[in-house]
Amino acid sequence: MGEFLRALAIPSTWRMAVRNVFRNGRRTAIVVTAIAIGLGGLLVAMAVNYGMIVQMVDIAIESELGHVQIHGAGWAAKPGIEVRLPDAGVREVLEDDLAGLEAWAPRIRSEGLASSTRGNVGVTLVAIDPEREATVTTLADSVVSGAYFGEGRRRAVIGVRLANRLHVEVGDKIVVATQDIAGDMVGEAFRVAGLFESVSMGLEERTVFVKLGDGRRMLGFDQEVSEFVLVATRDEDAAALRTAVESRTAKGLEVKGWWDLRPLLQYMVDAMSQMAWTVYAAIFIAMAFGIANVLLMSVYERTREIGILSAIGMKPGRLVATLLVESLCLTALGVAAGLAIGFGGVELLADGIDLSRWSEGLTSFGVPSTIIPVLPDGEWKIPVVVALVTAILASLWPALRAVRTRPADAVRHV
Amino acid sequence: MLEAIDITKTYETRGVETKALRGVSLAVADGEFTALAGPSGSGKTTLLNLFGALDTPTAGKILLDGQDLGELDATALADLRLAKLGFVFQAYNLIPVLSARENVEFVMELQGVPVADRHRRAHAVLDQVGLADMAEKRPLEMSGGQQQRVAVARAIVSEPRIVLADEPTANLDSKTAAQLLGIMQRMNREQGVTFLFSTHDPMVIDLARRVVRLHDGEIASDERRE
User: Fold this and answer.
1) Structural domain tally of chain A?
2) pTM score > 0.80 for this model?
């Protein structure tokens, strides 16, 4: 081991290794290309996968969920207007200087039926504070026709898909029927103020947004709401924010992160990550065999030369070090080319990969129609380190095989 | 002093045993210029490899200055080869990615000789074998004879006590072979380097001061000349 480490510090070990790398140009080109394509492809695949996951989560958070939501006790078991939150107590906590909190908004939710003269659709009635809602979701920016509520009472903002199903346009009236807190059926007419588009099919097709005051009056709420939606300063602050809110609000309130509220989304994120790592592992195994095969061939072809090195007094440790350094240099070339392909590929795809041909099916899963690849911070280092470690491990076998060959047999080898 | 004591070497290939040496005993004293001669398969290369610690005997002992080589591990044997032995093989002796000078310097580098000293000695030895102007050429840019001369330079640059040469003239024309043997003879005379050849080249046998003939793995004759 001592000889091996000493050999690594000797310039001629590296000089010989580098010269051996370029000794057989064609073979070097093949290995470098294989590593480069493997690693480059892996990085692009990683970026697309990560980009898609980030966008899916972002879409869910920005379109409706927020990072954290606060509900009254029992909401998870039976969400509905029976479970309400006193506005004042929670609002005080949120208006206090809460670390990691970017914005918040109150909402009332109720299931109901939206009707027009030409159809009706089961919907979720969501009563919001338009100004605050604009700070927690992208609803205001998603309005593609008409206005984001505008002045006056009894105005609704609905999705384009819902408008199509109800055959209404901006300015038309719809009637939303639901149950109030007393259990009585109530109905109210709303004028469609604006239409919004969303990559979330469910949101666009089955949600009616009205003003908080209209919702309270219609449903019989006093100064109460169904939920508070909170947005964290950064995605990674969400968990800490949830804990902070939970510790400051009254016991019994349900304070949940987006991962609790949409376990399916969390499951998809986890499943996609696991699937991705399976693919990465398969690529690395293929790459390891490729490197081992080339080195084995390279060592086999040089059996006589290795015998001569041994005969003139090169110790086994230095012989192994020379072969390992050679493998490392070869892999480093491939890794450099792979990084160029990977980062170059991600840069080329910076405008996004258009999946609109399949977007009808994808949006129902919350997948955006255009995926922008993103290489996660620092995570690109993992495949690079794995590639180099793979190269070392793959070269150990032929290197040890070489030093185990008796010099007398090696020098006889032709 | 190199000594082989009752050496037997058996090779096994796919269950078939072949006896390359059968109870050979031979002592080579310092300063000898000795040829191991004999037909192909007589065991001369096998004996040379055993003397050079490149192989181990099936039975018997190889002693170098009284040290039993069978008691040393791979690293100690490498040290011993580096310190005391020089090798010249039949062909393809050199490391192709190193120049003539680098090939010659490589042994000294393994010995830990300082860089400046290495350069000076390498140039001196290449000059001695008539290749000073080829120092920066790589093996593929040199003729077979030039390559063998570099191999001799590499074998002697570390000032080994013994040079083992396995058919060093086998791939050379007679003029180049004579030139190479002249160099080795001069080193033997002037520097006292021991040379042990395995050969069936009559030119080498004629020049040797001692000829040990092997036949079927046994010593058939041991002739000393003055």
Assistant:
1) 2
2) no
